[in-house]
Amino acid sequence: MVANGGTVKSKFQHVKGGVYHVPSGSLNNIANAPNVAYISPDRTLRGLLDQADVTIGANLAASYNVNGAGVGVAVIDSGIANVADLQGRVAYSQLFNTNTTLGDAYGHGTHVAGIIAGSGKDSTGSQFFRTFHGVAQGVSLIDLQVLDQNGAGTDSFTIAAIEQAIALKTQYNIRVINLSVGRPVYESYTQDPLCEAVEQAWKAGITVVVAAGNYGRANPTTTFGYGTITAPGNDPYVITVGAMNDKGTPTLTDDVITTYSSKGPTLFDMVAKPDIVAPGNLIDSLEAPSSTLFTTYPQVHIPLNLYENTWSTSASPNYIQLSGTSMATPFVSATVALMLQQHPNLTPDQVKARLMKTADKTTFPVSSSYTDPTTGITYRERYDIFTIGAGYLNVGNALYSADLAPTGTYALSPALAFNTNGTLAFVNAANVVWGTNVVWGTNVVWGTNVVWGTNVVWGTNVVWGTNVVWGTGLIAAANDLFLQANNVVWGTNVVWGTNVVWGTNVVWGTNVVTSSSSSSTISLSISNSTMSMSSSSSSSSSSSSSSSSSSSTSSSSGSAPTTTESIAAPSVNILTGGDQ
Predict the structure, then answer these.
(1) Which residues of 103-118 are buried (b: 16+ CB within 10 A; e: fewer)?
(2) Is 53 an annotated catalytic residue?
(3) 28: left (phi over 0), alpha (psi -120 to 50) or beta
(4) Burial category of 403 from C-beta neighbours within 10 Å (exposed 0-12, middle 13-18, buried 19 and up)
(5) Which of 190, 193, 198, 555 has its CA 20 to 30 A from that of 182?
(6) What distance lies between CA 21 and its chain's CA centroid?
(7) Which of 50, 53, 93, 108 is catalytic?
(8) pLDDT < 70: residue spans in the chain
(9) What is the largest CA-CA distance in the chain?
(10) What is the CA radius of gyration of the chain?
(11) DSSP string spanning 319-361?
(12) What is residue 503's predicted lDDT score, i.e. its pLDDT?
């Protein structure tokens, strides 16, 4: 790298790579180097935006005498503000995003943290008739800040935070990472440094819970929101969470999938995602004072008379209401913390398998629809494996269950492949707990209509097992959805296929063509024998960070918004390792 005018920004420890800054004109030489196997951008990530507790059975945790005590949950987000409801919960804070200051100027991370561990202090007392508290109030929160005041970050910030969570695992007993952030998928998870990072955390014994994404309404290629799972939720190791609308009631019978919740299968790899769904629509949780979300978007405000005995409709100074798979994810993370307090020896794969097996499968309608009042567009949803995964999170079932996936087996989300007759076949890796022949108990039943074994029936029209048949009533005029998707979304002749168009002037695929003279950012990871590199064009504002330049403290505090920095010089940042 030095020979090509590069300078070292930082080096990763668990992901085989580092961050370098090199001239744009050197990209061709770097791409053609014999030890460079792949190039991928240091891309921009964003946050994916009381009644729900009862909906998922979180109120039953007390009967099992668990509240998450002793379990560390790393919240990799926009930070956690110093608010009353989280006093004593934040054990460690560290800033990785160089475009902001320690705290939570955006407001996303504090809201997520409140769903996990909020005490409800600011809504408890005789003057209140509703209390907003988290699912696992006894956990220790590890605040790893990667998003700025606009909710933006980069791969390199996030990878550095994941590596720090691994490094701090023993000190703070970090057993869970919550990633309510994501970005589009641009390559196979096997080549994506961000996915490599979450896999390293998983293999280190940390259960990684990731938002599915909020692109369920996307329909650029007539795929009706399918194939829109974001990274790193596309990785088969992690638990990927979609969002339900609980309609503001504790009952399950009126709940429906949100139309924005991203659907599987994943691009390139066709992994069946999401793994599970949880409440994510209009979720009340903590507000970060003076944050961007509170000051810029009045629609997130909660009136005081929503939870306090008052006539005042003024905005609550302590709570806001947000929607998204970002909000669904911490419900699952908190549940994992409860499970690990109850059974500390569970592995991430055993946690994932038990959560999926115990999820509710019988509460869903056959279909649902929602008409956007602004656009007039009606979105129709089917309740298939790529929409709801294994079902609806059930905390009580997860805590009650004694099912244990055999040691040495994995809970990787399965991939699918097309047969020559146009049906889908289930492709499992070796030693996967739900392979084609599963002996997990005497007869594994995955819900009323779901048998997980040699032949798996998921719902009324989908057979998921040795041969997978997609029913005829999926979406009107879209029975060939996956045949279309095979050639449109993750095929060989499209923007994400063999030859990938990256930005305006860069072709990033089988053959790398030198970028334009404008600036870009690249991330590159290399092992001693193989190398993977990431890069981004100047169309996205980004910068790199290193753990040595990040700041840390034992507690979080509020911060004012700062100006976003962007790279303007005709040069790039790359992630790499090995010989320079």
Answers:
(1) bbbbbbbbbbbbbbbb
(2) no
(3) alpha
(4) middle
(5) 555
(6) 28
(7) 108
(8) 1-2, 37-41, 46-51, 418-419, 422-430, 432-580
(9) 70
(10) 23
(11) EEEE-SHHHHHHHHHHHHHHHHHH-TT--HHHHHHHHHHHSB-
(12) 26
Strands 462-463 and 501-502: unpaired
Q: Which residues pair with 415 in a beta bridge?
A: 271, 427
Query: What per-residue confidence (pLDDT) applies to 240?
Result: 98
Contact yes or no for 390/361 (Cβ under 8 A): yes
CA 6/CA 287 separation, integer angstroms: 42
> How far is it, in rounded angstroms, from Cα 272 to Cα 227?
10
Residue pair 140/172 in contact by the 8 Å Cβ criterion:
yes
Residue 475 tokens read as 């979406």
Say how many residues make up the chain.
Answer: 580
Give residue-wise pLDDT tens across range 203-224. 999 999 999 999 999 887 778 8
Dist. CA 132–CA 53, nearest whole Å: 10
Among 326, 413, 550, 556, the one annotated catalytic: 326
Strand locations in 34-179 (E): 40-41, 44-47, 72-77, 90-95, 140-145, 152-154, 174-179
77 tagged catalytic: yes
Nearest-angstrom CA–CA distance, 182 and 243 = 15
Is-above-0.90 flag for pTM?
Answer: no
| Lookup result for tokens 């935070």 | 161
What Cα–Cα distance (Å) separates residue 400 from each residue in 64, 66, 233, 406? 8, 12, 27, 18
Q: Could you tell me the two tokens for 411?
A: 């809970």
3-state secondary structure of 41: strand
Cis-peptide into 232, omega within 30 deg: yes
- Name the 3-class secondary structure at 469: strand
Would you state the pLDDT for residue 135? 96
CB crowding 332-341: b at 16 or more within 10 Å, else e: bbbbbbbbbb
Of the candidates 73, 94, 556, which has an alpha carbon nearest to the alpha carbon of residue 339? 73
Choice among 42, 50, 53, 77 that is catalytic? 77
Residue 159: phi and psi, rounded to 5, are -60, -45
Give the bridge partners for 382, in sequence order: 367
Active site (annotated) includes residue 108 = yes
For residue 292, give both structure tokens.
């961007």
Residue type, 31: A
Picking from 558, 574, 541, the residue whose alpha carbon sits closest to that of residue 145 is 558
Does residue 55 sit in helix, strand or coil?
A: helix
Question: Contact 384/474 with Cβ under 8 angstroms?
Answer: yes
Please state whether 61 falls in left (phi above 0), alpha (psi between -120 and 50) or beta. alpha
Smallest Cα–Cα separation from 244: which of 281, 213, 209?
A: 281
